[in-house]
Amino acid sequence: MTIIHRLPITTRSEPTKAAAKPREVSFYSRTSERYGEILTDNDCNLRYYYFPDAELEKPYNLAQGRNNFINARSQIKDVCSLEGVLKCVIDVEKKHDSKLNVNVITFRGILRKLIMVAYEHNPKFNKINFRVVFFDKQVFIKEINEKEDISNAIDVNSYTGYKFEALTLLNEPIAFTERDSLDSRADACVSNGDEYVSVVKTGIGKHRVLMGGEVDGIYDFKEDGADNLKHYLELKCTRSLSSYQDIENFEKKLFKTWLQCFLIGIPRITYGFRDRSYNLTSIEEYLTEDVPKLFTNRGVKAQCMDAIQWYGEIIGWLYDTLAHLETDANEIRPFKLLFSGSELDLVEIPAKDPEYDDIVNGEAVLTNEFKEWRRILKTK
């Protein structure tokens, strides 16, 4: 394998790179049934936040029901698939009868991981194992799906996050929710697998990015036929802060949460805090745009601006490197994107590699439906 290009994590070539305001262009729901069915322009998995302050007076234990957790994600063939995002791209391009003017198409989680390598240098804890293809003058980035435990066993700290969501979110707005459904949330069986994904167009510097990102819920109400980014919220759950060390650790977590909300344009973050016995003790709300002002650690505060600059460096490096290669418009050029601990490595996949055929001729990254659509679009 030949290294095409290396990007040291210390690289910052420009003092500032302006980030474009994210705009929702589409959305889809992915069900945990039938191995992850994709439903574009469908919000059946969108949920609504409802948890009045008075509810905190009740003794909610976030570890309750852990043994009955249903790991529905393990039944989905490829939880990292770009299929949903690509279907949305097709729908938008059919509507406008033109190709979306973006340079990079991927998921928000992938970009967050790439940005975080500059602040979490250990590849063991920040694993980067992505596949990149250059096709039709655009860059597509996909994460390799690692097989999940087929059992329902789950770490208790991870479970409390799912439990917190189940406790605070409704399947419909409160006005349409029956009392029995509302009162039974604490006892409901917790599962994963169902997702609601917003597909957003944004950018950094001169480059445009289309990314899909899972949305936890709606804070207030949904506007039909409109961009709903301003109504979405991110839910997180963590241990209560009882020491200076706890505060430092929380600021690092909040930085990562801020980053993932900033990338896709989610304006509100809601944190649930639990004690050492996993009882829900308090809930705090943060506006994404205000988070950088809250950090007491100057290093973490400075990371916010630095992360935006590093984000622009990554996108520019990836696109400019691949766009300068001599590539036929219908050709698919496959690469691996890896992290060595001090740099990102872009490595071309040769034709003799076992992965090559499935990426270029199969559906390991791009679906056949998407490739065929782009060929049809060219004839127009």
From TrEMBL:
User: What Pfam families does its record include?
Assistant: RAI1
Provide the E.C. number(s) assigned to this enzyme: 3.6.1.-
State the needed cofactors, names only: a divalent metal cation
* Keyword set, alphabetical order: Hydrolase, Metal-binding, Nuclease, Nucleotide-binding, Nucleus, RNA-binding
User: Any keyword Protease?
Assistant: no
Q: Which reaction does it catalyse?
A: a 5'-end NAD(+)-phospho-ribonucleoside in mRNA + H2O = a 5'-end phospho-ribonucleoside in mRNA + NAD(+) + H(+); a 5'-end (N(7)-methyl 5'-triphosphoguanosine)-ribonucleoside-ribonucleotide in mRNA + H2O = a (N(7)-methyl 5'-triphosphoguanosine)-nucleoside + a 5'-end phospho-ribonucleoside in mRNA + H(+); a 5'-end triphospho-ribonucleoside in mRNA + H2O = a 5'-end phospho-ribonucleoside in mRNA + diphosphate + H(+)
- One MF term in GO for this entry? nucleotide binding
Would I find Nucleus among this entry's keywords?
yes
- State the top-level EC class: hydrolase
* Subcellular location field: Nucleus
BP GO terms, sorted: NAD-cap decapping; nuclear-transcribed mRNA catabolic process
According to the entry, every stretch annotated as the RAI1-like domain falls at: 21-370
> Which is one Gene Ontology cellular component term of this protein?
nucleus
Q: Which PANTHER family match?
A: DECAPPING AND EXORIBONUCLEASE PROTEIN, DOM-3 RELATED
Function, as annotated, reads: Decapping enzyme for NAD-capped RNAs: specifically hydrolyzes the nicotinamide adenine dinucleotide (NAD) cap from a subset of RNAs by removing the entire NAD moiety from the 5'-end of an NAD-capped RNA.
Family note? Belongs to the DXO/Dom3Z family.
Protein name, as recorded? Decapping nuclease
The organism named in the record is Kazachstania africana (strain ATCC 22294 / BCRC 22015 / CBS 2517 / CECT 1963 / NBRC 1671 / NRRL Y-8276)
Q: Which gene encodes it?
A: KAFR0J00160
